[in-house]
Design a protein that fits this description.
The complex is a heterodimer of chains A (161) and B (174). Chain A is mostly helical and 161 residues long. Helix content of chain A is 82%, strand content 0%. With 174 residues, chain B is an all-alpha fold. Chain B has one domain: Four Helix Bundle (Hemerythrin (Met), subunit A). Chain B is elongated. The two termini of chain B are 12 Å apart. Classes of the chains: A mainly alpha (161), B mainly alpha (174). Chains A and B meet through α1 and α5 of A and α1, α5 and α6 of B.
């Protein structure tokens, strides 16, 4: 590889890293927002609570969708690791499966929130519990993704957060 | 209508504002801890250990300050316990639960402090931090419910809306 090609490849790697970090930052902001709304007062103002949680949940879902879309592209950080370091394929596949599973869980909860709006009954404790499970799973996945990227490139995705 | 005590005695700040500031400080400390503990496996162990210790210390300090302010006789929770007998048991439960969470955070800090950087079990610590974070968020939600209920009972007003709108100035003097 000549100097120009090497420089280009390094630039690509930095760009992939930046994209991945931006996606992660966006989804972390969305998690924090969701948690703030979930922890706001619920009983006595159920409809306001439900609407604010649902809005935050949709923001999170959108952030995760964009993250997944970028992550599945052939030039993404994870796809590049997959190509360059095949021994990490099982970990990447598992990460993607878990990401998909939690996205489906968010969709289910969103559907439930819509239906409780129609029926005007809501169990705030139940919903908080589900939100907590989702946020905990997402944080776990973030940490696992950091481990994976560090294993591949010795770079910390969370650096500068 | 139930009367609530003076809100202007906490260094000139309304108890509701103090309460929210305390909670926000603890939440920021929690975010710092979550960031530190999720640093990648394989990274410099000594740095990880150092960051984790610092984050746990910050959290412990934030929780101590939050609890100290909540225990003051003119705090929002003290107001509630004093003036709203119906909510006294829940207020006490909130305090007991918070004390337990402080113990959990202190144990975590002690364990990290006495364990060498190379002997730390990263996965184990991540799980413990996740459980603590989950419990703290649960506590925050329950407390918001309690304060909302007390405020609404007293003023028939939505404290969440009033805070957002820059309100928080309605607790009367005893």
């Amino acid at each position: 590889m000549d100097d120009a090609s090497r420089a280009h490849a390094e630039q690509d790697a930095q760009s992939r890293f930046r994209t991945s970090k931006a996606d992660r930052d966006r989804s972390l902001d969305a998690i924090h927002l969701l948690e703030v709304h979930a922890a706001s007062a619920g009983p006595g103002r159920e409809e306001e609570w439900r609407a604010s949680v649902q809005g935050a949940l949709e923001t999170l879902r959108a952030a995760l969708s964009q993250q997944a879309e970028n992550s599945l592209g052939p030039d993404s950080l994870l796809s590049t690791i997959r190509t360059e370091q095949p021994h990490l394929c099982p970990k990447i596949d598992q990460l993607r499966r878990r990401h998909q599973a939690v996205s489906e869980q968010i969709d289910e909860l969103n559907t439930e929130l819509r239906s409780v709006a129609e029926r005007a009954v809501i169990d705030i404790a139940d919903i908080r519990q589900t939100l907590d499970l989702i946020a905990t799973e997402l944080r776990y996945q973030r940490a696992r993704e950091s481990d994976l990227v560090y294993e591949a490139y010795s770079l910390d995705l969370g650096e500068g957060d | 209508m139930t009367e609530l005590p003076d809100q202007s005695r906490l260094d000139g700040k309304p108890p509701v504002s103090t309460r929210y500031e305390d909670q926000d400080r603890t939440l920021r400390a929690l975010h710092q801890l979550e960031h530190a503990v999720s640093a990648p496996r394989g990274e410099d162990g000594a740095k990880w250990h150092r960051d984790l210790l610092e984050a746990l210390t910050v959290l412990q300090d934030a929780m101590a300050e939050e609890q100290a302010n909540a225990d003051r006789p003119d705090s929002l929770l003290s107001n509630l316990a004093h003036t709203q007998p119906r909510l006294r048991s829940r207020t006490r439960g909130t305090r007991v639960h918070y004390q337990q969470l402080r113990h959990t955070a202190a144990e975590l800090l002690r364990d990290v402090a006495i364990t060498g950087a190379l002997d730390l079990e990263r996965d184990d610590l991540r799980r413990r931090v996740a459980r603590l974070a989950s419990a703290l968020r649960y506590q925050r939600g329950r407390e918001s419910d309690l304060i909302y209920e007390a405020y609404y009972d007293t003023f028939e007003a939505d404290i969440e809306t009033e805070i957002t709108a820059g309100g928080d100035h309605r607790f009367p003097t005893v």
